[in-house]
Design goal:
- There is one protein chain.
- The protein contains 6 helices and 5 strands.
- It has 135 residues and is of the alpha/beta class.
- It has one domain: Rossmann fold.
- Strands 2-1-3-4-5 form a 5-stranded parallel beta sheet, sandwiched between helices.
- Helix 2 links the parallel strand 1 and strand 2.
- Helix 2 crosses helix 6.
- The longest helix is centred in the C-terminal third of the chain and has 19 residues.
- It is globular, with a radius of gyration of 14 Å.
Length: 135
């Protein structure tokens, strides 16, 4: 387990949500195990891609300027970004939205309000899977 934890400290998580409370809660849940960058817009996230590529993205579905669905479509179109796991964050508990999220390419959907232990386990699981796929 220690080796896994040491590797995690190198993993970068982008959290994109227009709600500062969600950003704080998610960052708090992950900051002991991962490098975390929070941002309030997808535009900011894409501008950071020029400097840093995250290992995983936590992405709000509903944001003012752009939906999470539009953002994931843009990510999946780019060969440099298409393999980055995306976990959608949502307050919706609608089967159609959950199915659409999976169809769009989301690795998982995390319900709001965020339960820190569930978020942490999901991020760990999807980073492990992404690392295996990239070996």
């Amino acid at each position: 387990m220690k080796e896994y934890m040491d590797k995690n400290l190198q993993n970068l998580v982008f959290i994109v949500d227009d709600n500062s409370v969600i950003l704080t809660m998610a960052a708090s849940a992950l900051q002991n195990d991962f490098k975390v960058l929070t941002m309030s817009s997808a535009q900011r996230m894409f501008s950071l891609f020029e400097k840093k590529k995250p290992d995983i993205i936590l992405l709000d579905i509903e944001m003012p300027e752009t939906s999470g669905f539009e953002v994931i479509a843009k990510l999946k179109e780019n060969p440099n970004w298409q393999d980055i796991p995306v976990l959608f964050l949502t307050g919706w508990n609608d089967e159609k939205i959950l199915a659409a999220a999976k169809e769009a390419g989301a690795a998982d959907v995390i319900q709001k309000p965020i339960v820190p232990s569930i978020l942490l386990e999901s991020v760990k699981k999807h980073i492990i899977n992404a690392n295996r796929n990239n070996e």
